[in-house]
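Below is how a single chain appears once it has passed through the pipeline. First comes the sequence as given, then the structure the pipeline wrote out for it. We keep one example in the README because the format questions we get most often are answered faster by looking than by reading.
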Amino acid sequence: MICVEFLEKVKVVVVIPSRGEPDVLTAVESLYASNLTGINIMIILVFNASESDSPKIKKQNANTFQEIRVSSKWKTDHIQLHAILENQIPDKKAGVGLSRKLGMDIASQILTDNGNHDGIIICFDADCLAPKGYVEDIYQEIHSQKLDLAAINYQHQTSGLSEHQKIGIWQYELFLRYYSLSLKRSGYPFWHQTIGSCMAVSAGIYRKMGGMNERKAGEDFYFMHKLMPVCHSGTIYKVINQLSPRISDRVPFGTGKAMDAWSQNKTGTLYTYHPDIFNDLKLFLNGLYDTKSIDVWLNIGKDKMKRNLVNNYFITTGSWNIIQAIFHNTTSDYEFRKRFFQWFNGFKVLKFVHWARDNFYMNLPVVATVAELLNTDHIPNNHNSNQSVEPLLNKIREEERR
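Resulting structure:
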């Protein structure tokens, strides 16, 4: 039981969902070791399993839950651990979205009930590792940048991996960073990474916006893109969350699924979206930003710029009627742009990108595509070489921070 006096001083709550994770306490220990300055931190560990999950998963949850309950090591002056056991969640609702929501709802209540609406909720995963100062640096960066919502910088662990596995996880990270950097360069304002274990939000905004969704997968993407258009968001680069590169089939996409596919990849090549998709998006958005009057831009978009891919997409999908309605229901260009981007959210952008891929631009090898994007002197031909991929990954990590 955590005492009221400690709860009243909590500044940050870290939420970790765990489903049959044998090494989750390693992740927790890394957070304890990271606490350098002594701010009060609470960790909420949500052990979860569905009704149909195996006895092995439920036993692992129960055993670790009991291990926490009987140990006094987790109760310190400035950081304490609270565990929740939900081992019989209905199959229809069970998943990472609900698990995050259970922990984040409790975190929000603890912080806001004590009047700490600026307190921070940090999402973490059971297979992540936190560096020194991780929580404090996030807390300080959010307040210094006046952020309501933050994506947190990351990289994937490579210790113990074979050369083939390293190439795979590096190419996957290239894929992730290429997409966000391409959006950023296009002028799309909500380009930040949406990784569930690498996000943080103020308790007040979390509650105001209705909290986390209960999706079985993609909960992070939908959560962040719901908040980004209506609050101050950014990326924190000062800290780096160490993500696991392990294979997993728990969700239909993400790192685990990508590494599973890579393990069966005989070509040694991962593919990504064609850069001309983002070039067309940039051309479209330049018109939105540069035109002195939005009504002129709308007329150009409908009648004179049909060769632009984004315009074609809006015409094909009937979206120009929606855009016109937004225009007629706003009183200024600023308000129109604000409402437009609330409508043209991250999910709609991704749908456009996939439409363009399926109808116009075929995917390209990610290594060569990123090398061209970054204007490197040498575009590597050997995608199976550490010497080709790792320097390119380091360069795009640096470029994203600019």
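The chain has 17 helices and nine strands.

See the next section for the split statistics.
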